[in-house]
Amino acid sequence: MTSRQVQSRTAFALGKSKTAFAFGLVGLSGLVVNQALFWVFTELASFWISIAAIVATQGSTIWNFILTDRLVYPGKDLTTRWYHRFLKSWTTNNASLILRVPLLLLLAQWMGPHWANLTTLLALFALRFWISDRFIWGSKQLVAEVTGEPVERPSKADVLIEMKSNEWGPHMALNMRSRKHAKRYFYDVHGLVAIASEVDLPELQYFAVTEFSRKPDITIRRGYVGHRRMISRVQATMSPGLFVYREHLGSIGANFRVDLDNRINVIVSPLLASSKHVVYTNVIEALLRFVLVNKGYMLLHSATVQLGDQTIMLSAQTDTGKTGTILRLLQEHPDNSGFLSDDMTIVNGKGEALCFPKPLTISSHTLRAVNTKVLTLPQRAMLAVQSRIHSKDGRQFALLLARLNIPIIAINAVTQILVPPPKFMIHRLVPTVTYLDHGVVSRIFVIGRGDPREELMPYEEAVQTLLANTEDAYGFPPFSIMERAITLRPRKLHKGKKQGIVKLRTRERAILKEFLGNMPVTRLHSPNFGWADIIHERVLNPAPSAPEPGVPTTRTFEPKVRIVRDNEGADQPDLPAPALERPKPALERPGART
């Protein structure tokens, strides 16, 4: 190392020490503010100490941010706007409450609430300084200014770094070691897609099997992806047959890697692997969608049930009331109904639908459609918290955070570990339900809220609506960037020329258009959540003469008043699929019939 480099690094170390000292002084003043607010809320307002700690943190966060931004980092070449820095600072301080509050409650039993609050603040000071200095105010720019070293400027999450195979070098530090003797889970989706996973996937429990002899189409492993050290920005990198997603927390966080060369191999980092719902929803289902397209099927976001001798589908926008409608139909007509799916249905161009019975995500409002005694009292009490966090508003807030430079997948994973989503298989909610493996769809209802209206949708409008509803189910990161890297070989995933995402999407649209064919798609609006009554009447007691498909016809009706609210996500019409032989699922399915 030259004398100039030594001087530069010495100057940098001195500058860093001054920054840490200034940050410490601001932090000390923030401790005073936090302690004062904590005293006010505990002694004068008589708040619980956990609530007082949360409220006091909001005040000290604002205080610390203003002083840090104006005094500790004045005049720095900051690349972010002040409100971006504030939001990241606020997120960091509130995320630390996950550690602080339990520690506070524990220490308060020995040293009193005020000393316990001060102790927890001091314990987390170093971590907060490191995060603030590295990721909020970006002092890596200061390193370049002092030492003359280049500044790495990774791309934002919505911009892929495209690399050739020979450029995929050791700088990525991809460590794919998996645990020895790891337990494996096996899923066979109607004989179409075989999945072997080191992560339990509850959404696929209906398709769980003991094992299969053929090679899996999708393999999921636990491992380490990316550098151990943390990075300052989300990075999504693609090279031929490979996609890597990395976030701020390094290889222990929510990184994952997808190999698409010969079949599909997915490696998920430890934190992501611990959140099985996020692994499936954010990574696996997107891959499963296009593997099915590659095999001539489409995964439509919709609900599918059988009423009488007809198989019908329901499609709806987010937070409309589809799940409550399905539950009512099954609960009120147990001897004349069957269940295929609530969220996704596998369909083909012949008008056939294969079941895809994932656990239903419910809310307190949805539960009104069934006997509330099917859940225990603690489950019903917890449901109020779960449905609030995993509601439409919660998802919209998460999507807003996803636009910022924060580890959104890691935050989502931690949230779902601490507060699991309220998911239940349909037979837990409606014990009399009958599972069906397949059916031929006779009609589709697109339900919505508004003035009473019933009309047939034109063919092209129906295609666009169902495609839009499907896309709505894949709005959370990193799907929008990962899909650009998806390339699949048409023949058993390992033979033939690769098809890119454009061809796969074109094929998906063709499957849907062929499926709809002459199938009637009815738009059904109701102001009072009465779709279940109307659908039952239209299917089991149809009018003497039905209008021709594709010819818009409007009529009004007076639906029976029964309010069933639903916080679930958007749905889409599903397509029936042929009966296929497959291994018997490990899940016990009461009353299952084909």
From TrEMBL:
Region of interest: Disordered: 543-594
Alphabetized UniProt keyword annotations: Membrane, Transmembrane, Transmembrane helix
InterPro entries on file: GtrA_CellWall_Glycosyl, GtrA_DPMS_TM
UniProt biased composition (Basic and acidic residues): 557-568, 581-594
Ranges of residues in domain GtrA/DPMS transmembrane: 23-137
Biological processes, Gene Ontology terms: polysaccharide biosynthetic process
Keyword Secreted: no
Domain of life according to the entry: Bacteria
Cellular localization per UniProt: Membrane
One GO term describing the cellular component: plasma membrane
Name of the featured protein: GtrA/DPMS transmembrane domain-containing protein
Organism: uncultured Propionibacteriaceae bacterium
